[in-house]
Design a protein that fits this description.
By secondary structure, this protein is mainly α. It has five helices and no strands.
């Protein structure tokens, strides 16, 4: 039983790690196209929160003798294509807010799925996953004025 809990813990931490990296990469990808200073500040703030949580995740993964997890190349590629296609059509802050909102919604959905899938994970892993969900939810809410 302990091994399954440890396994679920590592799997949940890895998925959260991958999620923080995906979020940081996505924000970095569009940041130079943002026009409104307030929107840039919101995105920079969220990126900082994702990076801080990512550092915590790296420490926890090391404690569990496990390595980090990069986002799946297919997910990264699809995100890149969608971002570049939409931005080519319309480089507005509304497009950026729309893309970020979609990313947040996909992230929250995936994280809830992983919480259910890896139900044997320890409480600290579940806590960090819920904190990541909160960061994503807040970023999604912060995008609403720009849609």
């Amino acid at each position: 039983m302990e091994n399954m809990a440890s396994n679920d813990t590592i799997k949940l931490l890895k998925e959260c790690d991958s999620g923080t990296k995906m979020a940081v990469e996505s924000i970095n990808e569009i940041l130079d196209k943002v026009k409104a200073t307030e929107l840039r500040d919101v995105l920079n703030d969220s990126r900082m929160h994702h990076e801080k949580l990512g550092n915590e995740l790296h420490s926890l993964l090391l404690e569990h003798n496990s390595e980090e997890k990069d986002p799946a190349p297919m997910a990264k590629g699809m995100s890149w294509l969608k971002t570049n296609f939409k931005m080519a059509m319309d480089e507005s802050d509304a497009t950026i807010a729309d893309l970020i909102t979609d990313g947040c919604n996909m992230g929250v959905k995936s994280l809830h799925k992983y919480l259910n899938q890896y139900s044997g994970a320890d409480n600290s892993s579940k806590d960090i996953c819920n904190r990541l969900i909160s960061i994503e939810d807040k970023l999604c809410d912060d995008m609403q004025p720009y849609l």
